[in-house]
Amino acid sequence: MNDPRSVGLVVPQTARFDKVLELTSGASLPGFELVYETYGTLNAARSNAVLVCHALSGSHHVAGFYDAEEPEKTAGWWDNLVGPGKPLDTNKFFVVGVNNLGSCYGSTGPMSVNPETGKPYGADFPLVTVADWVKAQAWLSDRLGIDTWAAVVGGSLGGMQALEWTLAYPERVRHGVIIASAPKLSAQNIAFNEVARQAILSDPDFHGGHYYEHGVVPRNGLRLARMVGHITYLSDDQMAEKFGRQLRHGEHRFNYDVEFEIESYLRYQGDKFAGFFDANTYLLTTKALDYFDPAFAYGGDLRAALARAKADFFVASFTTDWRFAPERSREIVYALLHNGRKVSYAEVECDAGHDSFLLDSPHYHAALGAYLEGIVL
Amino acid sequence: MTLYGRFDFDCIARWITPGERVLDLGCGDGALLKFLQQEKAIHGYGVELDPGNVSACIANGVNVLQFDLERGLSGFEDDSFDHVIMSLSLQTVRHTVPLLKEMLRVGHEAVVSFPNFAYKPHREAIAAGHMPVSKHLPYDWYDSPNVRFFTIADFDALCAEQGIQVRERVAFAEGVEVSEDPNLNGELALYRLGRLGSGTGV
User: Using a CB-CB distance cutoff of 8 angstroms, which residues of chain B are in contact with residue A337?
Assistant: First the structure.
């Protein structure tokens, strides 16, 4: 495997912080670890650093691969975007992927050992917010000697972190890149999250979140949660095109086994996810999504909330995304316009629904690539 | 002297005060905004639907918003721009009157330019039995993006009827300003428009 547009074999690193982190909820963590990866080289002026924030099920493994024997199977989740000559060009930028607090991919989270009890946190891991994640990311920035990010980039929940960065640390972000995101969840978004949470919470193997001690995982609940979530990531059109009413056996068999291909697909996605993801992480991440609302402290006035931002912005949405529809991105754009921020907005035609932000449709990558190329270091 | 080969840019630039907020509807690749950024240090935003043009604007260092003008300007706040420009695109949108009113709600002034269908060679084409095809009307009738066909005289009448103040009007032919009978001799018209009863200053 010698793809010149890949960052190649990568190894994650860990930063340990032995300092109390006060959280939005009032709880605190006595110390924590963040796992991260970097691609490209930090320039002498330290002006070319770009932070990539991950979404619900993502991680610090943004680009490159872990196993040279299986580069595609072990590739980062945004490998089509990040690399030499790719839109987020590692010849120009020093890119950092960071794993958030509460994750199950290595940063301190519910699976980590609680120093107070000597046992995994489980359900005792405090609820963390987007603002908490960004605060922890800011500590990592300090550790890496990055005073100002050339850009903070994210899709979906990652886009919320990018927006939060421009509000919490306006002097430390020159460009906010917010893709397929929203300034807050709608009632419908929260409703889907609640169904997912109830699936997990009502699984007999959940044990109030302390399932690790029982040697089980609430696999069925997590599987259901992912199935519900997955429906919201795809578009109706795409589902119709991919599966339609295709039958597994070419006939109606009048039972509850897989009959329609869409059932098979959802079961497969649910099983796969339940095999590696942690239920407590899923729970707290959906709560972080629900709570995100920078306008909350401003009586719901997003324009007032965004007055603090000093960055320039690139915002993008996808026509068939009904989870975070283009309208939600336009709310951000109009609030930025109100505040006189420089902003470009692309509304990309793509049939893949919310997941479009992970794909490389030409107009999407052309617009995003042009924006990133225009960033002066 | 004419940059980008667009004589209308120079005329528009004369109406723009340095440092203004400018919204350009149907901004194409952002050439006008880039020109005004360089010449007048404006804070500009373009609205453009075509994805290729959106990327071109970004590459040109121009803020661009991929909105569909047929959905109107309702998201834009009242008086949020000094000038709202629509250069050579008015003839391509259906909701002409609502759009003009919206331009004057969002902007203190509006600037529009359009090809004059009553330009002498166009009249001659019609007299000879054919739809006009010219530099500013380069399309055959069956593949034209234009959906509204109107003249300087028509537009003047519309403005009078709708209470839209014509503050300046310039007509061009072959890149040169024409003063005599613009509806006959002008192939391109450029207007500076305002709300009746508000200021007239450039």
Answer: 45, 76-77, 80
